[in-house]
Amino acid sequence: MQYQAPVDDMMFLVKDVFKLTDRFAGIADFAEFDNDLYGAILEEAGKFATGVLQPINRSGDEEGCRLQDGVVTTPEGFKEAYQSYVEGGWQSITADPNYGGQGLPKALHVLIEEMFYSTNTSFCLYGSLTAGATQLLQAHGDEQMKEKYLPNLISGQWSGSMCLTEAHAGSDLGLLKTKATENDDGSYSLEGSKIFITGGEHDMAENIIHLVLARLPDAPEGPKGISCFIVPKFMVNDDGSIGERNAIRCGAIEHKMGIKASSTCVMNMDGAKGWLVGPPHQGLRCMFTMMNLERLSIGIQGIGLGEMSFQQATNYANERLQGRATDGEAPAPLKKHGDVQRMLNTMESFNKAGRALAVWLGSYLDIAFHSEDGDAVKKADIMSAWLTPIAKAYFTDAGYETCTIGQQVFGGHGYVREWGMEQHVRDCRIAQIYEGTNGIQALDLIGRKLIANKGEFLNVFLSEIKADLNRIDSSDHKHQVEELLTDLEELSQKIINESSNNPEIGQLVACDYLHYTALITYAYLWLKMESAANGTLDEKSSFFFKRVLARVLGLKASIESELS
Amino acid sequence: MQYQAPVDDMMFLVKDVFKLTDRFAGIADFAEFDNDLYGAILEEAGKFATGVLQPINRSGDEEGCRLQDGVVTTPEGFKEAYQSYVEGGWQSITADPNYGGQGLPKALHVLIEEMFYSTNTSFCLYGSLTAGATQLLQAHGDEQMKEKYLPNLISGQWSGSMCLTEAHAGSDLGLLKTKATENDDGSYSLEGSKIFITGGEHDMAENIIHLVLARLPDAPEGPKGISCFIVPKFMVNDDGSIGERNAIRCGAIEHKMGIKASSTCVMNMDGAKGWLVGPPHQGLRCMFTMMNLERLSIGIQGIGLGEMSFQQATNYANERLQGRATDGEAPAPLKKHGDVQRMLNTMESFNKAGRALAVWLGSYLDIAFHSEDGDAVKKADIMSAWLTPIAKAYFTDAGYETCTIGQQVFGGHGYVREWGMEQHVRDCRIAQIYEGTNGIQALDLIGRKLIANKGEFLNVFLSEIKADLNRIDSSDHKHQVEELLTDLEELSQKIINESSNNPEIGQLVACDYLHYTALITYAYLWLKMESAANGTLDEKSSFFFKRVLARVLGLKASIESELS
């Protein structure tokens, strides 16, 4: 089944729900963008997703990546698709125009990312890591580095990788052992081995720019002794041409549950030459720069795959005849059975609210980065910090549930590879794990973002929503959202209070708290969409409020059971 | 990591929780069995699981089944393992001693099944289907058929398959098209094609006995025009020797998400010779005979895989050092982190309650089949009918969640194939789909078992529990269970009432109702286990009551939202 780019639904968010052009009024960098442009870009992105990415998605899963003599070959068609991707400018959407980027808002880019993840998650990862490397260099590289690497990373002609994880250092990067020693010429020599490196080696770009975390000889132990280095696969000569091969090589690729067309590499450095990015021992801080954007991107993987699974399940439920409907039709299409409706509605509930949160969060990242209004930037920074772990973890937890439901709609046909429904489940599963496991996201939310600042971020979040609720007419749903916000405030305060006597409390309830907060956020967003849709979304919104939102009761009780 | 057969936990259920020997007092067929025997059999089953089945589980997944020229080759080692399985008598545990079976209780067999599913789900399926065919023939075959086929099916020397599904007839078997026309000699000639036939063809047994659903020429349309036929792969001569090859052949095998070592076949019949089992047009009724047993068995797949995933996750959480614990230890084993404890506790909550329900339900199946007390049989029939859809659907839904959590504990290592955690997820996923999707189970529970008999089955279920609660000392948990039983009764009555005006209601709330009922059943079983354990299970039981059972609040609210 061909993917149908949901451009109308997306433009509804851009134009009617979040009114991006109004929201960005006063931001000089976006002054020339309007809804026509946004719509046109989304149309083109939809064509690229359907015409270029989807056709090589299942074949990419079947074929996978291959490693021979240190060379990784991507599946058939990937190299050509990547070439079109670069030529189409899809890597440079949000990047800095000073280095060849298009400077468009993240709030738009999240929608493009969704379409690409829908149609070929494995493919997207190469570009996602390149974007991460770009952002890090942009923020922490010196001017010479930026000039040398950024234009080719931004165009996608070169790709990037983030070399963080080691066999004994995953969630806890403080344990990493890779060593960097300074050479006479100011460069560094790196020794060590990294695992789970997405896009660490492949055949699609002419160079790969690795950002590597390592320890200097005088480094303190733990997370405060980690530095960041740029380690290109091929040296780049001063004239910009490709030079000699560097001693960073792929020793193995992982055999994984899914995203098989994405190369996941063991990268060995044997005297690889690198250059320090940012100050010594500040590597983890450098990583934090790109974290919000990368985590949002990985979250969107969950929405994209959920949407693809939903479209296929809807199509199948329309066509597959099975059983007797309550109106007597037999055999009736699956969609006439109430339990199948529940499944499709649940999927849509998650996808639409997730997409809205992606745009909302994207808009705060844009304000934080582009606005010149100091107060607005400060608020946007807080909102981004608060919403990012929610988006990453809940998009992907809900995405996995959604893909699993979509597979269930297909019955036995969902379990065989032919229909592609099981690939979505396998491809989605990793998004709950990498870029900080969803457990780590939950700890980030409740530890750093709630308890550590004694509810300050939560208050900003609540104020933003409450201010917006003033613009929405009174309704049952509005009343429900208001009550939930009060519940969230009270429960959060109890957790903060409890944490001073019981340091375990955050760990014990972290995941439930993240899901609880996410569902309340989704309720606000469904209300906001319903209100902007003039009645056309009432039924779908009601389903969410009746059937999905009910989960907050269990989550709240579960959290309260751990409070004294 | 080697599987640790949980024989002590199992014998705790057999001896202390359900007191099987007391429960079966008065059943002549079980008079000679005692706890020593049960314990010895479980010990042996554990050895077989660890020594024979587990070593070929991951290799079986990697290798898969292969089809060439109509011959299916199972992965290396499967044929030898099957031979040991037959020689060990593992196929014949519950079968009729008159035909070579051991006549042991199902309540014991469920525990053996769990161990085997834990260590090699693909392997188990061959025997599970053979058991289904055996039960059907035992109940509906004529004496000649029984003598001809049962001894070799019961020993496992021959295997069985159930040929139901066709491309356009899955959940709705009434749509099937395979035709059977009578031959002069009283046999039938079958034409048609079946899909998703587990064990339809393989190289482990010398003959395969297919039970095939087909239509006679004069058959009424729909489900009331389906007859059941026995169609052997090789004809069986009157002296019991193997005769000529029958015209039922494997045309293709499916490429699936998991259970790759289980052959899932397209079976084509081109004038295949068969014999009618049971009366004409009563094929679906014949299938119902074996349905409870088969559904329970498939449910246990969820518990078995959940247990294996739990053991591995626990082991990993003990050994993997990562992050700082709240007591300051760094790096600390994962198990010291509260969020990891939540994950492990959730897994154990589901596994232990599921295992208890399997034994409880198994004991009712035993009473229904073996007791000579008419009232006891009647009650046991109702309890089996009520509990079976709950067991099948909830064991597997919770099993999938459990395997997913286990994978999450491993972080990135859970996503790569090497550690085996992702295989459990893939292998478990099918159990929510086949043997009646979990949606079908939920409709069975709320439609046939609740609404159609106006709550009669529910009342028997409630009375059984209430009678047992009288034997349990008062406690907070007991009080909670009592309240939940009242809630369940009231909510069920509302659904029954509503259904007379709103025939959609069952479909709309079916899945939530099944989960709601299952969790309340688990609460009763946790209470019962806690009470039998003299304090040693209090902490684990409390976790279930505090953190997992809280979900009933959301489920209840979701159901109520659809009631007028």
Description of the structure:
The structure is a homodimer of 564-residue chains. In chain A, 57% of the residues lie in helices and 12% in strands. Chain A is of the alpha+beta class. Chain A has a domain at 288-560: Butyryl-CoA Dehydrogenase, subunit A, domain 3, CATH 1.20.140.10. In chain A, strands 3, 4, 5, 6, 7, 10 and 11 form a seven-stranded mixed β-sheet that branches. In chain A, strand 1 (66-68) and strand 2 form a beta hairpin. In chain A, helix 9 (283-319) runs antiparallel to helix 10 (338-370) and helix 14 (438-451) packs across helix 17. Chain A is globular and about 80 Å long. The N and C termini of chain A lie far apart (53 Å). In chain A, 58% of the residues are buried. The interface between A and B is large, with 76 and 75 residues. Chains A, B: It catalyses: 3-(methylsulfanyl)propanoyl-CoA + oxidized [electron-transfer flavoprotein] + H(+) = 3-(methylsulfanyl)acryloyl-CoA + reduced [electron-transfer flavoprotein]. Chains A, B: Belongs to the acyl-CoA dehydrogenase family. Chains A, B: Residues 474-501 form a coiled coil. Chains A, B: Its cofactor is FAD.
